[in-house]
Amino acid sequence: MDILLESLGAAGAKQFLRASLPHIQQYHANLLAAMSAQDWAAAASCAHLLKGTAALYATQEFISLLEKIIKKDDETIKTTQFLETLQMAINTTESRININLS
């Protein structure tokens, strides 16, 4: 989030996040659906799309999770614990965005 604030200022960051949030939420939903369906190729594709902009608004933890999905780290990403951690990271990311929009 700091990158957005430094680059665009508070008003510009809010405008960017407001415009981006519906797309981010859709990508998050697509990622979770692919992970739940164990469609690892689709999950990797979704993670790749998200990683491109995640550095602007997400935590490092979320970015690390995306990297594991992209690398198809099978031993890790196929676990229930990983999916739960991913869901929490997505919730945290969306909450942080909403806080910055308020």
From TrEMBL:
GO BP annotation list: phosphorelay signal transduction system
InterPro entries: HPT_dom_sf
Protein name (database record): HPt domain-containing protein
Species: Thiothrix unzii
Organismal lineage: Bacteria, Pseudomonadati, Pseudomonadota, Gammaproteobacteria, Thiotrichales
